[in-house]
Structure formats: structure tokens, C-alpha cells
Amino acid sequence: MGSFQSLPDDHQYRTLSLKTGFSLEQIAILHNRFKQLSQNEETLRRDDLKTIQDLESNPIRYQIIEAFFDRRNFQKDGVGSVEEIGFEEFLTVMSYFRAPAHHITEEQREEIRRAKLRFLFNMHDTDNDGTITLEEYRHVVEELLSRSGALGRETAKGIADAAMLEVASISVGPMAPDEFYEGITFEHFLKILKGIEIETRMHIRFLNMDTAVFCKQHSV
Amino acid sequence: VPASYAGVYNTYPLIFPGLQSVMELKMFLLVLGLLVGTGSPDMGSSQGKCSESLVQGPQTQENRTHTTHSKKPFPVLSFGYDYVRLPFEISLWVLLASLMKLGFHLMPRLSSIVPESCLLIVVGLLVGGLIKLVGEAPPVLESNIFFLYLLPPIILDAGYFLPIRQFTENLGTILMFAVVGTLWNAFFVGGLLYGVCQLEGHRLVTVDLLSCLLFGSIISAVDPVAVLAVFEEIHINELLHILVFGESLLNDAVTVVLYHLFEEFSSVGTITVTDVLLGIVCFLVVSLGGIVVGAIYGILAAFTSRFTSHTRVIEPLFVFLYSYMAYLSAEVFHLSGIMALIACGAVMRPYVEANISHKSHTTIKYFLKMWSSVSDTLIFIFLGVSTVAGPHEWNWIFVVATLIFCLVARVLGVVGLTFVINKFRIVKLTSKDQFIIAYGGLRGAIAFSLVYLLNTDHFPKRNMFLTAIITVIFFTVFVQGMTIRPLVDLLAVKKKQETKRSINEEIHTQFLDHLLTGIEDICGHYGHHHWKDKLNRFNKKYVKKCLIAGERSKEPQLIAFYHKMEMKQAIELVESGGGSKLPSAMPSTVSMQNIQPKKPPQDRALPQLSKAREEEIRKILRTNLQRTRQRLRSYNRHTLIADPYEDGWNEILIKRKKMKELEKKMNNYLTVPAPPPDSPTIARARLASDPQAWGLKSATESIPSIKVDLASPQSPESVNIVDEIGMKGSQPKVSEEGGGLTMKVPSPTKPRKDQTTDEDNDKEPQQRLMRCLSDPGPAAEEEDEDEPFLH
């Protein structure tokens, strides 16, 4: 059973709520989950996340786990990655998956879009140079197709190439043969993913959490 | 029969001044005249014309012919109508329907203002009126013909092409509207009508509560036929389309249950609580049972299609038969046939499409569209005819009350439900959306047929119901149908977007799916994505292996998508490389070298894409996105086995023909093979000599690959053009010399496949192309079926 430790005071929850936009109830639930994953410690490590069984079958699990430890996602203008995170960082990363509120202005919507797309961009741009190079993109596609064996690997290159071509031709237009397209910048990324309504698609319903999960015996 | 012509001929120019051509007019009149003549029953009865009865069908009594008098001149020409009566009339009706449809599209002015369904009802009214004028009783839309023959094609068409993703995303909303909305409508309308009837006094007081409730339940259901007919033309955004349409499909279960419930108990007179509970259970049984029956047949169809690789010709037949059987089986048990049909189509589609040949797929698509179109047209025409025919009892109060209550109930229902639904939706429904949903709740022929089925003994007021329903149907179809288009424009409702499905979006859609599943797992939250992912994995692991033949069962969606795109590129490249239209070489847009960081050329793979071509690619992709077509044995992008999507293929053919003409012209001038500046040869050569255009990939031996030989401008291929045109029917030698763009398949089993566009004559290369472009079915050798099809 998930045994509650001493509840952090409401004040802490409130600041978190203000910062991330979650409600107090959702924060409490997520806090419980955090504690469950970190085995009641204060910080979470990569290995803790790797123990989640359901994640095993996910082809991009490494990227997802990395995203939690990537300083760029903590909204504090940091770079690089960390070894362990606290609850605040956990919550901050989770807040990228909140649904936008109903009555928001266009600018707010645009801002939310940018934030979410920035998260995705960071997931692809592993060396943090501000662009997604061909190699990185290839890696992304390879991971996506990693379940298909050798078959996927070869085609992944082709797919990534085609995708890059598409981005280049959309963003830059005609290029002379000796020009070189460095990589997908964030602006280009925004442009090509305009069609996907990211702000509504990239969300999780945080409210209806299964309490049964907390009662489950988690692997130690 | 001839008598009717004269009368009709005189009146028509007055009635239809809009008809532009005399030919149309004559056609119209001819068909109408014939119909009027044949629509009146007993015209060909044998009694009246004994002298003509000599050459009748085998049914006619031989006695009579024997007893006729001794020596008559041998009848060279006689009239035997009874024999063909039924099929003749059916064909004539269908012909009329199709000609009407044709006619409407020849009058663009009219069809842009008035939706087709309205025009068809008007035609039906006219035909019915004419038949009545002649003095005969016009045929009525028989309920069993409607439910057994006219409705299934429309529903199957809708179910087979149902956009699953949007449907499942909005399933909760759709169910709410379908179930709760219909119940609300039924009880509201029924109850209030009962009140009105009681208040009205003398004529209506006999209508009891159950009858009113039954009437309410019949009229409250939104009709899929009408919705489709109107919404098709307004191109509204997908969300609204799927909401209204999905509702119209799923409310069938509610309608069935309520109808049977009230019909059963109207004879008894009262309903107890147990009956209500049973009704709820019945609802669950009907809907879930229908879905299960449909799913079973769908799986059977998918399984059957796994083995059809040797009998490609009858593949579409399996799809149609299994679906129809699903519908009929569901109807046997009084389950919801519509839901069975939808379930069958939706379940079988991904597997069947992976198994069947491309031609079968096209056949299925076109047959479904054709049947549903004809059905749709016939239904509306018959609705018009039945209006003229049907026994009417007009009661102002009842009819007007019905109309008002229906509208009010719909509006209130939609508003109330949206209020509740929006609490659970991420993308909320705005008031504009609500208005369109409410306004789009059209009633149609299903309601009409259901009323028609009512037993007059139990429902003495059936004719009044009929009149009321027809009025409501006319109102919704005419008024709402006609005004919805300007209203949509006025309210600036979002229209259907031309979705450019790019490969980046596809990649990221998949990426997002996995990401969200992962986050859900981290949260410990078994949500929507988690279950969807589980279902996908189950599907991949077990179901696909059973139901999809061969290699295709393992193909991930992204790869399928990419290969489709590639094939398009390849088709485009081939046709442009040999096409006469290409003035200069590929316009310089981004090519591989722009993104490759100074790598040696051997890894260059993709051809340059011009913007226009990319557009074409996307357009074709978009229209063909749902299918996964994969003809390859192995998944190497260089294996140029293109799938002849009808658009791309036709274009290739056209361009090839043009090129041949050009070559023929050239041939007249040339004695020496020196190609003129903008000849296809130059273009191809330029292309071929451009190292960036076609890259060589180090292919392993087992994988078929394209070997590109870089030809010089004065390559032997220019000789080939002249040669090949001269030597018709002979083996094109291009493959031997390997000039230009050839595709060689190292594996000995595969026949040589020529993609060079300078083929000698149509038949031979077409056959070769056929062999590589289509499935190696038994009909590969005699591709006669292809040519008429492809024109």
C-alpha cells in the first residue's frame, strides 16, 4: 500500500500549483506516484524509471526517460542532464502534458504550442546544438522502427532522409547544389508541425488516476 | 403506353425552363414516359391481348394458344411484356435515377443551390404525379425493399470508409448524442404530442400514449442517408461530420429497441417497470449483439481474404457477401443491422486491404460508391413518389405540432448534452458546432419506412403519422438541407482541411503516440493511450499474423507510409524522366547533397523533388493514406515496383502516349539518331548523367535493386527509340544495353521489369509493366481486364 509520509505543507503545493498549473489534487496524486517510483526517497533516478514494466515495450523509452533528466525541460534555462531529479522537476516535466484550458487567448495558445514543441525538439536534439541534424533525426526514426529488426534500420535512413528533404524544401525552399542545410532549427520545426494540433493532442488526463495502481505491488 | 407521350410532351417545356439542351429534355421525357407506362400495373396482362400472347414466356397457358383459331399468319413480331416485366421495371427505375443524377450535374447552377436530395425528391414527386395523372396507382417504397436492398449499400459504404481514428477519439460524444439524445427526442416529442392530442379533443383523442411514444421514437432518429447526402456537399470539418454522421449510425440500435418495445406493447396497452428494464437489457443486446455479429463476419472476411491470392477476381465479392450476410444475420435476430454492417466493414478493412490486390481494392471502392449512390438516388425518388401515392390524412394541429416539437427537442437535446459533454472533452464544442449539430439532424427515409411498416389495426392513425413524418422529412431535407450551406459559410464554420500529410507529421504522430503512452506508464495511469497501445500490440502479435497473408503482417505503419510515398516519387520520376513535358532538368530545389554533410556519393539515395511534384505526391498520398499497399518482397527502397494508384498510372499512360506521338514525329525527321534539344532523350540523359539524381546504393545480392547506368547524351538509347518504333511487337532491347533508367532484378525468378518509358507498343510493355505493377495473379498474362479498366 502506498503509505503516505508526512504530507508536505500546503504552501509548497501551492507554489508548485502556481508554477506548473496543476491543481492541488493532481499534485498530490503525482506526488504519490513520485514517491512510489523513487521508493520513498527524495530524488528519482533513471533506474527507478527503468523499472516500470510497461515501459519495456515502448520503442522510445530511452528518449522519454532522458527527457525527465534534461535540464532544458526544467524551465530554468539550464543545459545538460542531471543524474537525479526532485519532485519539482518531475512535476515540471509532467506539466508539458497538461491540456490547455478552455478559455485562453490566441497568444496563450501559441505559447503553449511552442512550449510543447520545444519539449519534443529537445527530445530529438540530443547534443543540444539548437538544430536537429540528419544523424539525430535518423536516430529518432530508427528508434521508432526499432521493433522491426534489420528491416527497419535500413528503411529508417530513407525515411529520415525524406523527412529532412521535406523540412528543407518547406523551410528553405530551393537550394543551390553547394548549399548545405545544417539541420532543423526550432523555427523550422514549428513550421513543419503546424498541421498537428499539438496543444490538444499532446496531453494526458491527469485527473482520473487509478488508485488501484498505488495498491499494486511495485517491483523493487 | 403511347398515349402518355403526347400529353407529357406538351406540358414539359413549361415546367422545366431550366433544362438547357433539347437532348436532355428528350431523354428525360422518354424515360419518364416509359416509366409512367410501365409503372402502371397490369398493362401487360395477358387477358387484353390474346393475339399478342403467342410469344410469351413459358408461364402462359398453352391451352389458350392451342384453342386459338386455326390458321393465323406466323407472328414475326409480337409483344410479350409480362415475361420481363419485373426486371424491366427495376432497370427502368434505376436508369431514371441515374439519368436524373447525370442531369443534375449538367446543371451546375441548380446543383450548387439545391442539394441533390431535394432535386431527387422533386423528381419523385413529378413522376408520382404523372403516374397518378395517368390513372394508375404509383408504386410505394416498400419497407422490405428499402431495408433489404436499398439501405445496406449506403451503410456498408459508410462503414467501410469510416475514419476510425476520429470515430474512436470522439466515441464518447457520439454515443451520448446517439443514445441519450435519441431517447430524449423520442420521449419529448412523444409525450408532448400525447398532450396535444388530448388537448385537441375530438379527432385526436383516440391516439394513446404508446402510439405517440412510438411515433416519437420513429421520428426522433437522425437519418444517415439524409445526413450523408447533405453533408457530403458542404465539406464541413471532420469533427462535426463524424459527430453527426456517427450519431446517425449509432442511433439505429436505440430506434430498433424503442420501435419494437412500443410496437409490442401497443397491443397490450400498458408498460410496466419490468418492461422498461427489459428494454434496457434489450438495448444492450441489440447494440452489442449487432457489433459482435458484424465483427465475427468481419474476421471471417479478413481470414478468407488471406487465401485469395490465386483468385483475385472474386476478392471484392467476398467483401460484399460477408458484409451483407452480417447485415442479414443481424436482422434475423432483430439486432441492429446497421451496427453489424458498420462493425463488419470497420473490422475487416485493415486486414482485407493488406491482403487483396490493388485492383480489387479499387473495385470495392467503386462498386460501393456506385451502389450507395444509386441507392441513395432511388431512395429519394421513391420518397417523392410515395408521397404522392401514400394514403394521407392531414391534420394541421398534429403535423405542425410534430414539426415544432421535433425542432425544439433537437435543439434542447444538443445544447443540454453538449453542456455535459464539454466537461469531459479536451476540444470543447463551441456554440457554432452545436448549432451545426442541431441543424444537421435530418430525418429521412428510415423513419418513413418504419411508419409504413406499422400495422393499421393497432395504429388506426397510421396515415396521419405518415403524413406528419413526410412533412417533417420534407422540411428537414428541403429547408435545412438547402440552407445549411449558406449558413455554414455565414457562420464561418471550419471547413474540411486539405490535409497535407507529410512524412514529418506521420513520424511525429507515431512518436507522440509512443510518447504519450510512455508518460501514462510513468504516471501509472492506465489511460486512453495505454489501452490503445496494448490493443495495437495485441493486434500486431496475434491478429495480424492470422489474418494477413505473408510478409505484410509484419510491416509497421511508418514503413508502409514511406514506401507509398516512395513509389509515388518513383512513378513521378519515371514519367518525368521520359516525359515530353519536361523542358529542363529537375528544377533545383533541395537535394540530398544539401543535407548530407560532405559524404561520398554512394549513400545518396533519393531523387530530387520539385515542389510541384511533391504537391502531387502529397495529394495522391492523402487520398490513399488509409491503405497499406505493399507489393515488395523485401523492403528496399530501390526496388521500383510501383503500385498503380489510378491517378499516377493514368498519368503515366497519358504521358507515355504523348511521348510516343512525339517520337513518331521525330522519327519522321530523323535519319540519324540525333535527338532534338528538348527531346525526352536529352531530359532522361541529363537526368541519368546527374550523379545526384539517382544514387547507387550498395545492394546486397538478394535484394532487387535498380542499377542505373549513367548514359551519355549520345547514348545508344536514342537508337532504341527509332528501333523500337520500327520494330513493333519485338522485344525492346533497352534492357540489354542498360541505357538510361533500367531496373534489373538479380534474382532469377523475377521477370525482367522494364520501367523505361520508350516502349515499342502499348500492349507489350503494358503487359510487362502490368506484371511488375500489379499482383502476380493468374490473370497476369492475359491482362485484358486491365485495359478497359484503365482507360
Question: Your description of this structure?
Answer:
The complex is a heterodimer of chains A (about 220) and B (about 800). Chain A is about 50% helix and about 5% strand. Chain A has eleven helices and four strands, in the order H-H-E-H-H-E-H-H-E-H-H-E-H-H-H. Chain A has helices at about 10-20, 25-35, 45-50, 60-70, 85-95, 105-125, 135-145, 150-170, 185-190, 200, 210-215, and strands at about 45, 85, 130, 185. In chain A, the strands form two sheets. Chain A has a two-stranded antiparallel ribbon with strand order 1-2. In chain A, strands 3-4 form a two-stranded antiparallel ribbon. Chain A is globular and about 60 Å long. The two termini of chain A are about 15 Å apart. Chain B starts with a helix and ends with a helix. The longest helix of chain B has about 35 residues, at about 275-305. Classes of the chains: A mainly alpha (about 220), B mainly alpha (about 800). Chains A and B meet through helix 2, helix 4, helix 7 and helix 8 of A and helix 21, helix 22, helix 23 and helix 24 of B. Chain A: GO terms for molecular function: calcium ion binding; protein kinase inhibitor activity.
Key words describing this protein structure:
heterodimer; A: 220 residues; mainly alpha; 11 helices; 4% strand; disordered N terminus; B: 791 residues; globular; disordered C terminus; differentiation (chain A); EF_hand_dom (chain A); protein kinase inhibitor (chain A); protein kinase inhibitor activity (chain A)
Strand proportion of chain A: under 5%
Q: In terms of structural class, how would the helical and strand content of chain A be classed?
A: mainly alpha
What would you report as the Rg of chain B, rounded to the nearest angstrom?
32 Å
- The shape of chain B, in one word, is globular
**Could you give the count of β-strands of chain A?**
4
Gyration radius of chain A, in Å: 19 Å
N-C termini distance of chain A: 14 Å
Membrane topology (chain A): Lipid-anchor
Organism (chain A): Cyprinus carpio (Common carp)
Subcellular location (chain A): Cell projection, Lamellipodium; Cell projection, Ruffle membrane; Cytoplasm; Membrane
Main location (chain A): other
